[in-house]
Design brief:
Two copies of one chain form a homodimer. Chain A is an alpha+beta fold. Chain A contains eight helices and 20 strands. In chain A, helix 7 links the parallel strand 19 and strand 20. Chains A, B: This is Esterase.
Chain lengths: ~375, ~375
């Protein structure tokens, strides 16, 4: 079926090829997250993705992306021995993880760059987004993303974190900066917000446009992946809480020009990182003053009433496809209870990185307003 | 044959299993460059590597590593549907790139981390080395590795570089540091010296032991991969030379506390990065004062006589398996001509990263001696 689809689309004729009544536009271009010089995978302006895999003697090749209920996208063998196919429908805007099943084994697409998610280095693909400009690489002053190795006696090793220092950090050695501690989700690691999220580029662009004050962002591994996806009730916050509060924050405050007090320290996280944020902020009201849960739960007034005077912002976001009334209602209840609470819903996306890139874009201007 | 080898090795009996007369020690452990929680690939104390790939319906699975002339290591299907095999002989100490051929297609090993080489993100494996301590992650003060995006009008984009700032950089804001510009080889990119080379850990450890003065290392993409491996005669140095001299050096000197003069600026590179180093240093004698070619060619006295007073060090290294007399003889001739020339030969390695890790270890203490 898909082979037929490809032939019809290539011939340029207008016809109804799917129950969806959509003509697939043949404006496919290599995904911006391909390896250098790799033509495939490709994406078009409507959000379709097209794959090409070389495995001449394979019996079956399937891509994990595509209409969920249909088990991904089955590729068909072309005359030259390559396997090709196009998703049956368009995908949500933004970044997606995927992998390839070849004869029953899971492998990555050699055409794509790799991104850590679902506890493995997956392939990644970027679907064009109408608002993609806000995370584009532009000719503006850029911050630095610093890989640091901080001592962690509690885990008996040096642990890695990435620290974004904003443009101007080096030119203004007398300035000190507030800090956002920003966590990834289950299955991910400390590279997620930079590689998948483009947090540094989002910040660079907003700072250049004067949309946010500059601040430091710290991104470390939230120790999320020891539990399996369905095993959240077994998750214990104490090990990561110890690393964060006792080891990482002191390290950052000693090596970077931070404003090292509660009023100038924020914590946020996506998905399971939001769950961690909620637990840690509630357990440490003298450490953080700005709280952000991105597709990561909500606070109720009862959770936070005891510390109202210390909490400057509660930010709750979700994609429009993941029951957004949860965050809207929670923010309304918090506002009613006297908190500076904001909800944000990303239109047309679900539990995925475009929701979280946009959430950071909405969150940043709200942080650290005196 | 290899299946038999595995059975015999596992049974622990002493016997001659190969023409090599070597008993394979069953002390295999997961490679230190595996993805989190992945058991395979594994390596033993003798340098053998063992692989396990899940691809139940595949017809053939082959690993690109193993005795060169034998075309890698063919895996055999075990009862549980996994494919397994062990290299026919031991491998050189240190880091190796590899990939997996499944039914005629090239893919990565899902158990291994990825490293950029041969113009693709390859799988990587680490063979234990008798001297591996010098690049180990230790409980010493660590430098930061900063990802920077510097403006490059000549290539109409912002380009990436990684800048290693040594431990103490933040604690001593009045100190300024010399700089080593360190290039990768053909097929690699700006991540090579950090990810494959562990340059930051080598420096952290030597600084902790007082074996080298601290300095900054800058690692950017040398624009090597537009030419194919055999197409060196088509390579033009001018684009990269322009990026390095006109764009990157000024950026580094403006954002970091460098000692921004010729006497405190070094350039080095491995393989094709050495070729670039030779060309650029000879063409810009007022920019660099310390030159290092790592498995990357040599200088003759005639190349450098005109600028003798400006050149403080010429360092030439090679692996013992890659005609090391070249660097020994060249250094001797340079010394005879009055230069501070040093050669270093890495024992038991060839054109591979262990040679270059060791070369950096030998080079660093020689740099920037007043």
């Amino acid at each position: 079926m898909k082979h037929l689809l490809l032939l019809i689309a290539l011939s340029g004729s207008l016809c109804f090829v799917q129950a969806q009544d959509t003509v697939i536009k043949e404006d496919f271009k290599p995904s911006t997250k391909n390896q250098p010089q790799q033509e495939y995978p490709q994406v078009n302006s409507q959000g379709y993705a097209r794959f090409k895999i070389i495995a001449p003697a394979a019996d079956s090749v399937r891509v994990s992306l595509g209409l969920g209920g249909q088990g991904g996208t089955k590729l068909l063998k072309a005359e030259d021995g390559s396997w090709m196919g196009t998703t049956a429908g368009p995908m949500d805007e933004g970044f997606h993880y995927y992998n390839i099943n070849i004869d029953g084994g899971k492998f990555n697409d050699p055409g794509a760059l790799n991104y850590y998610g679902s506890t493995r280095w997956e392939s990644g693909i970027e679907i064009p987004a109408h608002d993609q400009d806000f995370y584009a690489l532009k000719d503006v002053p850029h911050g630095h993303v610093q890989q640091v190795l901080f001592p962690s006696p509690s885990t008996q090793t040096s642990r890695r974190a990435f620290v974004y220092t904003p443009p101007g950090y080096y030119e203004n050695p007398s300035l000190r900066y507030p800090v956002l501690y920003l966590q990834h989700g289950w299955g991910e690691d400390e590279t997620a917000w930079s590689n998948q999220g483009h947090a540094n580029l989002i910040m660079d662009n907003m700072i250049a446009e004067g949309k946010t004050k500059p601040f430091i962002i710290v991104m470390t591994y939230g120790m999320t992946n020891e539990v399996r996806m369905g095993g959240m009730r077994n998750f214990k916050i104490e090990p990561f809480q110890t690393v964060l509060i006792n080891e990482l924050i002191p390290y950052v405050d000693s090596k970077f020009r931070t404003i090292a007090d509660q009023q100038h320290r924020a914590m946020g996280g996506l998905s399971m990182g939001g769950m961690e944020t909620k637990t840690i902020t509630l357990g440490n009201p003298d450490v953080f003053s700005h709280y952000a849960l991105l597709s990561g739960g909500t606070y109720a007034p009862d959770d936070v009433n005891a510390n109202k005077s210390k909490i400057k912002l509660i930010f709750l976001s979700a994609g429009s496809k993941e029951r957004p009334d949860g965050v809207r209602n929670a923010a309304a209840a918090l506002k009613e209870a006297g908190f500076n609470a904001v909800s944000y819903v990303s239109e047309g996306t679900g539990h995925e990185f475009q929701t979280w890139r946009r959430s950071l874009r909405e969150l940043a201007p709200l942080l650290f307003k005196e």
